[in-house]
Amino acid sequence: MLKGLYINTLKVLYIKRIVQQYIKRIVHHDQVGFIPGMQGFFNIHKSNSMIHHMNKLKNKNHMILSVDAEKAFDKIQHSFLIKTLQKVGIEGTYFNIIKAINDKPTANIILNGEKLKEFLLRSGTRQGCLLLPVVFNIVLEVLAIAIREEKEIKGNQIGKEEVKLPLFADDMILYLENPKDTTRKMLELINEFGKVAGYKMNTQKSTTLLYANNVR
């Protein structure tokens, strides 16, 4: 039994390595979580630069929004996950194995020492799954692309680069210009994404930092 578990773990680790190399081509460099060659301090440095930049501005009308996802890994819909993997071109053996891991998973509840009837899980991933963070990055990239491409959501311009949303796995920070105008559209995108993917913003834990000359 232990031998079989060891072999299966090696297989998952191998697939994880393959998928990690693959997603470097499809996930934007804004995302640094669980991406080979990327480190969390990249975004820390970017955040420090952004705060320094905004502090120097004479006309301040910016906001930093830290978005906390409510039980992010537990809420992603399996059907959306599979469709997203197909959309980005993951196929063949790797796709089939990932699909099998998430195909009609079930769970049981033990109540007073008695195991109740199993039930189907339609969202979330298996606890401790080694592929979870990597696959989640691919799913979240759908939302990240929508935010990057939305012209009504303006990031902060530093030179020729527009800095809008550094990410570390499910942790997202948004740098917004004209927050009064852009926040509404940004929340609309998050809500629309949530309807199909299961993603939900935790408003109790999400925080904002406003940089403005006059707040009314």
Helix fraction bin: 40-55%
Please give the radius of gyration in angstroms.
20 Å
| Continuous helix count | 7
Strand content: 15-25%
Main sheet specs: 4 strands, antiparallel
Q: pLDDT below 50 for ≥5 consecutive residues: which ranges?
A: 1-7
Average of per-residue pLDDT values: 81
| Count of individual beta strands | 10
Cα shape:
globular
Record the strand order, biggest sheet.
8-9-1-10
Distance between the termini: 65 Å
Give the tally of structural domains.
1
What's the oligomerization state?
Answer: single chain
What is the succession of H and E elements?
A: HHEHHHEEEEHEEEEHE
How would you describe this structure to a colleague?
The protein is an alpha+beta fold. The chain has one domain (2-212). The protein is built from seven helices and ten strands. A four-stranded antiparallel sheet has the order 8-9-1-10, with helices on both faces. Strand 8 (167-168) and strand 9 form a beta hairpin. The model is unreliable at 1-7 (pLDDT under 50). Its EC number is 2.7.7.49. It is an enzyme of class 2 (transferase). Residues 1-216 form the Reverse transcriptase domain.
Offer a concise description of the structure.
With 216 residues, the chain is an alpha+beta fold. It has seven helices and ten strands.
Give me some keywords for this one:
single chain, 216 residues, alpha+beta, 4-stranded antiparallel β-sheet, two-stranded antiparallel sheet, 7 helices, 46% helix, disordered N terminus, RNA-directed DNA polymerase, EC 2.7.7.49
